[in-house]
Design a protein that fits this description.
With 317 residues, the chain is mostly helical. The chain is built from 15 helices and no strands. It is globular and about 85 Å long.
Amino acid sequence: MDHSGHGMTMDLPPFTLGRGLEWSADPFFLAACLLGLGLYGWGVVRLRRRGDSWPVGRTIAYVVGVLTVALVMCTKLNDYGMVMFSVHMVQHMVISMLSPILILLGAPITLALRALPVAAVRGRKGPRELLLALLHSRYVRVITHPAFTIPLFVASLYALYFTPIFDFLMGSRAGHIAMMVHFLAVGVAFFWPIMGIDPGPHRPGYLMRMLELFAGMPFHAFFGIALMMGSTPMVDTFRNPPASLGIDALSDQTAAGGIAWAFSEVPSVLVLLALLFQWYRSEQRQAKRKDRAAERDGDKELAAYNAYLASLDARSN
């Protein structure tokens, strides 16, 4: 059979998890994952060699994040995802919502800023200086602003799946790769200002970050419900699944909607926990700074406040 316009002929047997997890690497994503792991490992080793520490938890989060990308793009989940809406939705949810969160918790930009050498000649721009310039650029300010990230996050669902754009992209290998890269990039742009450890142009207070999170998440649930309630197949790519799969297109679409609806809760919980932990750590650091300042100046702030209360009491008498 023709594999969704990619020129690949294969008869996929009925889907099982074991078959889906068999190795079937996409060359682009395999190379990208290996490069990402290699560069991160280089940064950690460079810090360790000069005596600097790097949290093990960040390394674990980043590695697991990259491996989740490999899981959905370098196994037969990617093959089944070309012809089964439900499997494709697993790919989409993982690569756009789970992978970005884990990768961001690994703080790769912070690692790069610490590991990359400073330009040897003053005024000359090396990789570290170029990265800093990018972080402070107008482009990054725009793509990480909630007014941009939230609409883009929503449009990546509705404007893609409910228009001919999705079928066009699924018609070629390059289009499919571009779509998956887009999902990953949108997820990173959406979650970076909310819970990312790395420096960025937008870093609102913790309460505002929670509001940004919950402003985007319900649209995934609504999208899933729309698929589940559909009385006919809504995406042409998955309208006629291969007979060898033994599935019904409408039932598969309902399963895809259920996955989208259920998965919308997973990142919400993960990000909320990360935010609460970061908030707690921030309060702890602030309390320690105040304690150190009080030790240095003899707690002048408290003394001034007590003097203020005493003056009020004297006036009342």
